[in-house]
Design a protein that fits this description.
It is built from ten helices and three strands; from the N terminus they run αβααββααααααα. The protein is mainly alpha-helical and about 240 residues long. The protein has a three-stranded antiparallel beta sheet with strand order 1-3-2.
Length: about 240
């Protein structure tokens, strides 16, 4: 990236690249983000980097630390518990609204989003890091499921909560094999069948599995998650297809 483009365009590009690095795990929770280093890395001005990091701060993927600068948001069990509680309350309501108000176009878009998710590789190599394409497809599927609610505010809230959950999802997936394709298929089938109670049960179980995996493996120390993952052989750091 060079500094020859429009400032807002450059800021958006830095935002997207840093965001992708955070969600994929290449920039782990708690990692300090030095503005000067990012400026050199992306070939842009310090102000462009600050704009991008401030935007990520607004999404709670990055935090601003007084006298220190910026850092990737750290994980904590208390925050995870609160996040899951809020997600379940809001996303369950959004899903019920979607099932009640979603039309045929919404249904076809769910099928298309699920097809893309099911056919996108989750990991690219033995590191177990999630690919950005899979992260994007996963977020798009969940967003589409809830988009039938016809409330822009509700969609904005659920999207923000999902992004925050991605930080935890990234560090829980390598630790416990899960049938993610089966979970997503069940959510889709229940939703398209207009079975609201069944759909909410499936979505709730899907969200809670991540929380339960983290709590079980953290043992009170969420930093233990990364140590547990790194101690495993490469072939056990991702979910089998």
């Amino acid at each position: 990236m060079t500094a020859g483009g429009n400032r807002s365009t450059l800021s958006a590009q830095v935002y997207q690249q840093v965001r992708a690095a955070i969600l994929s795990g290449r920039l782990p929770p708690g990692q300090r983000l030095k503005v000067s280093d990012l400026s050199v890395q992306h070939g842009v001005s310090l102000n462009v980097v600050r704009e991008a990091l401030n935007r990520l701060t607004g999404e709670q993927l990055v935090r601003a630390v007084p006298q220190i600068g910026f850092a990737v948001t750290a994980l904590s069990l208390d925050d995870l518990t609160d996040l899951v509680k809020v997600r379940l309350a809001i996303e369950s309501t959004a899903l019920r609204w979607s099932i009640e108000h979603g039309d045929m176009t919404w249904e076809s878009q769910i099928v298309a989003a699920h097809y893309r998710l099911a056919n996108t590789p989750m990991t690219a190599d033995e590191s177990g890091l999630l690919t950005y394409d899979w992260i994007h497809a996963h977020s798009a599927f969940h967003a589409m499921i809830l988009s039938g609610c016809s409330s822009r505010r509700m969609q904005d809230i659920t999207r923000s909560l999902s992004d925050q959950a991605e930080l935890y999802r990234r560090w829980s997936l390598p630790l416990a094999p899960r049938d993610l394709p089966g979970e997503h298929a069940e959510i889709m089938d229940a939703t398209l069948s207009r079975q609201a109670d069944r759909a909410v049960v499936a979505l709730t179980a899907h969200i809670e599995r991540t929380r339960n995996t983290i709590i079980e493996n953290a043992g009170g120390d969420i930093a233990q998650l990364r140590r547990s993952r790194d101690a495993r052989p490469p072939e056990q750091r991702h979910i089998p297809a």
